Amino acid sequence: MGERHLGRTKRIVELLWILMVVLTLGGCMGATESPEDAMLYPDEVKDNDDYIVVGFSQVGAESDWRAGNTESFRSVFTEENGYFLLYEDAQQKQENQLKAIRNFILQEVDYIILDPIVETGWDAVLQEAKDAQIPVILVDRSVEVEDEGLYTCWVGSDFEKEGRSAGEWLIDYLEEQGRSEETIQIVTLQGTPDSTAQIGRTAGFASVLKEQENWKMLESLSGDFTQAKGQEVMEYFLETYEKIDVLVSENDNMTFGAIDAIHEAGKTCGPDGEIIVISFDCVKAALEAMMHGEINADFECNPILGPRVAQIIKLLEKGEPVEKVQYVEERYFDASMDLENMIKTRVY
Ligand code: AHR
Q1: What is the 200 CA–ligand 1 centroid distance (Å)?
Q2: Ligand 1 atom closest to Cα of 65?
Q3: Which of 206, 200, 164 is nearest to 186 (CA)?
Q4: Residue with CA at minimum distance from ligand 1 atom 1
Q5: Does residue 71 sit in helix, strand or coil?
Q6: Which of 28, 122, 128, 346 is buried deepest, with most CB atoms within 10 A?
Q7: Nearest-angstrom CA–CA distance, 131 and 152
Q8: Contact in structure between 21 and 52 (CB atoms under 8 Å)
Q9: Domains by residue range for the chain, with CATH
Q10: 190 Cα to the center of ligand 1, angstroms
Q11: Which residue from 281, 299, 302, 328 has its CB within 8 A of the most atoms of ligand 1, so it is best to mutate?
């Protein structure tokens, strides 16, 4: 074989190598389209022990709750506080979260914070993080994995309790209204299917519903936790069912969309209206809507998880143990309460 031919073969092999590296990196990059867009942290940070590097894979920006949750992390994991935060918005797509986590592993971050969009499909990537010895802290939603040792701990809401409390509230409310014996027709706007928030709230409410012979669940459909989808699905419910007594909406943004649909259909809701509205999250705008008579009751989901996670990281840095499951405190609000002063101090 001539030298020129050998040289050409070597060049082709080199090009194939480069192509392979680019494709591999592309597959490992964050929630964005191209490798250049993925979030990287600078070498000054990498070589500087003063910073704790945290990769945070967030669900998206689908709701007011989510905005409050993101802000809670951004305000705590700052350089002034000794952190460098790599933030990736997954735009409600699990595949983006898988890419983001692999990108964090590649960059050898100190901790990974994951708010998993859905519960399933995490075993492989969490195993990769474990093999790389990077602790994973789950926030808000959780995962269903074979080995619970794949993550360090979880911090979030007791979604099932939220759903159960909503059902129990409805029993009391109907009793107060003298409607305990009436047939009550219910529709549910569910959150993202297979997300912990959807699974828990649906199961919690269902556990009360099954004991109430006169309650009838007409239909439950997903509004994906967004206002636009909430409105669309509620429009369908209103066209399909002549009489709806109760709307259970698994987050406030879907509720806002549903209220628009109710008004557009020429119907009314809230304490003085035709449809009883039960919502989840308790964001400021929802409590305002409650004050304006549009929502009957709202079950809180606390988005302020950043400070709690920072405490956990401090313990882990000192080599101390942390509790595996950590619930945050929550309450509910209904239209009979004095909301005005409380709203003034509400941060989300
Ligand atoms: O996982 C928490 C839920 O997700 C919140 O209820 C909702 O608003 C968000 O989109």
Answers
A1: 12
A2: 8
A3: 206
A4: 197
A5: helix
A6: 122
A7: 13
A8: no
A9: 50-157+303-317 (3.40.50.2300), 159-301+333-344 (3.40.50.2300)
A10: 11
A11: 281
pTM: 0.89
Does the pLDDT at position 8 exceed 70? no
Which tokens sit at 286?
């929802």
Q: Which residues contact 249 (CB under 8 A, 6 or more apart)?
A: 188, 189, 223, 230, 255, 258, 277, 278, 279, 280
CB of 97 sitting under 6 A from ligand 1: no
Give residue 327's pLDDT band: very low, low, confident or very high (50, 70, 90): very high
Question: Beta strand pairing status for 297-300 and 332-334?
Answer: antiparallel
Rounded to whole angstroms, how far apart are CA atoms 329 and 342? 16
Residue 123: CB atoms within 10 A of its CB come to 14
Q: Are 123 and 150 in contact (CB under 8 A)?
A: yes
* Residue 301 Cβ < 6 Å to ligand 1: yes
Q: Which residues pair with 275 in a beta bridge?
A: 269
**pLDDT beyond 70 at 271:** yes
The residues facing 57 across adjacent strands are 88, 114
Q: Is the predicted pLDDT of residue 6 greater than 70, yes or no?
A: no
Contacts of 342 (CB under 8 A, 6+ apart): 287, 333
pLDDT tens-digit series, residues 172-221: 999 999 999 999 999 999 999 999 999 999 999 999 999 999 999 999 99
The predicted model gives 39-46 an average pLDDT of 76
Cβ atoms of 97 and 117 closer than 8 Å: yes
